[in-house]
Amino acid sequence: MKKGAHYPQHKYQGHAEIMILNGQVLISGVELSKGDYLHTRRGEAHDIVALTDAELFISTEQAMTLIT
Signal peptide span per the entry (predicted)? Predict the structure, then answer.
């Protein structure tokens, strides 16, 4: 993600794992940086904002739904 990019509020139909490979992001108001890990439960909504250029690894068992 480029610095300042925003991925809107969304949720997964299954569990998701997010690893921050590089940079800093804000996920639902929580600042995460290189090496940090986040696990989300099924149906847990969140958004992502890149505070710096960032690379994330996201693994999910089901599809994602944007919340509008």
Answer: none
Q: Is the pLDDT of residue 18 over 90?
A: yes
Apex 13 CA angle, 66 and 58, nearest 5: 75
Angle subtended at Cα 40 by Cα 38 and Cα 45, rounded to the nearest 5 degrees: 120
- pTM value is 0.85
Q: Are 1 and 54 in contact (CB under 8 A)?
A: yes
Q: Which two tokens stand for residue 34?
A: 């290189």
Task: Answer whether 22's CB lies under 8 Å from 35's CB.
Answer: no
